[in-house]
Amino acid sequence: MSRTEPTELPAVHESWLPREHPMHRPRHGRRQLTALVCALLFLTAPATTWVFGARAERLENRPLAEFPSITDGWGFLTGLSPWAAENLPFRGTAVRSVHDISQGVFGEQARLESGTHSSPTGTGSDQQQARQPLNENVFPKVIEGRAGWLYLGHDVAYPCTPKRSLDEVIAGLRRWRQVVEASGRKFQLVIAPDKSTMYPANLPPEYAGKDCSSRAREEFWRRLPTATGAIDMRGPLRESADRNGRAIYHDIDTHWTHEGGITMVYQLAERLSPGSTATWKVQPGRQYPHSADIPDLLGQRRTVPIQAYSLAPDGGADHTRFEPSDFHEPLHLKSMPRAGMITEPTRMVGDSFTQFASPYLAATFADIGIVHPEEVAKRPRETAALLAEGDVVTFELSERFVSGGRYDLLDPAVADQVGAVLAADPR
């Protein structure tokens, strides 16, 4: 007698069917409960430990992932995991512990998340890019170069996975120039080159994304300075490095040195007031250790020696002033004007590269306010009010974020919103 297969779904849950029934499926209640408890602990750990005073440590040169908004729909659920992972208060300690074990026991660098990379593995290669669009997560966080040099993986990941096309980027920057100059103000744009742009010789022979990032970099510098009127810092930075006989970027940090910051300030001052730097006197000042940002991604705590400088705009006494700030809260620097200083009120949008220039901006600009690029789109009204205080508006933006179209301020709608406020208070 043949067995008759059921032709309709049973009226009860499959876990309630007899065990011999072909559609019986156990509920796995204990396993499900354990998984749910683990997930709950993971997702609530940042908030729970925060109550007891523990704080998350930022390992990358960007803000920690924010708690997702309930208005994001499905994005609320997908955003919980990165928020919880990045805001775990002991994440930094855990990363460094993994590195210490890997280095001490196995004698090799730990591969954390995407890890480090000095040769192609196929994952994230240009052959794969030809088949399907790449996600930035397939690229290494750190690229190990020659002679111990470390490069931030975003130098490659962002140009290879742009959020905006170069045409859109150029249009966004040109719109900023238009709205600022239409209000009667001067506009200056500086692009801080990536370390991989300035020192490509120290990159490894092969690495994931080499071809696509090289193509993007070449087109970027061929088109953008001319199309937007941006100051091309590559030549002045090379001249400064040759003059001083040392690299103008740190070997294990992604930023330029204080000499790079001074070079940017020189370029800005000469654009605004040609000849004003003739009386400037720059001399070596104090030295201090600075925590390098790239080793943090490898679980290491390493420092680079910082050579700071004194700068006297009139050739007399030192006029520098260093006030630590990440510019997410605007930094205001004011002083009595001296000969050789830019006296026009200046408002600046600048990121971490400007941190290495702020002591020299304070020495040479009598009235300058600085805000971080992320705040422009987040708080357009507050940013507009700040920029409206200036007769000069200056942008310093990082190559990797511009070439990757990652700045929200590149949306022309943001420029228009700020521009409306500037137009209502013309110069």
UniProtKB/TrEMBL annotation:
Q: Which residues form the AlgX/AlgJ SGNH hydrolase-like domain?
A: 142-275
| Source organism of this protein record | Saccharopolyspora gregorii
Instruction: Give the location in the cell.
Output: Periplasm
Mention any Pfam family matching this sequence: ALGX
Pathway given for this chain reads: Glycan biosynthesis; alginate biosynthesis
Please give the start and end residues of each transmembrane region. 33-53
Q: What is this protein called?
A: AlgX/AlgJ SGNH hydrolase-like domain-containing protein
UniProt entry tagged with the keyword Membrane: yes
* The entry's keywords: Alginate biosynthesis, Membrane, Periplasm, Signal, Transferase, Transmembrane, Transmembrane helix
Is Cell cycle one of the keywords? no
Region Disordered: what ranges?
Answer: 1-25, 111-133
Q: Where is the composition biased (Low complexity)?
A: 115-125
Q: Give the organism's phylogenetic lineage.
A: Bacteria, Bacillati, Actinomycetota, Actinomycetes, Pseudonocardiales
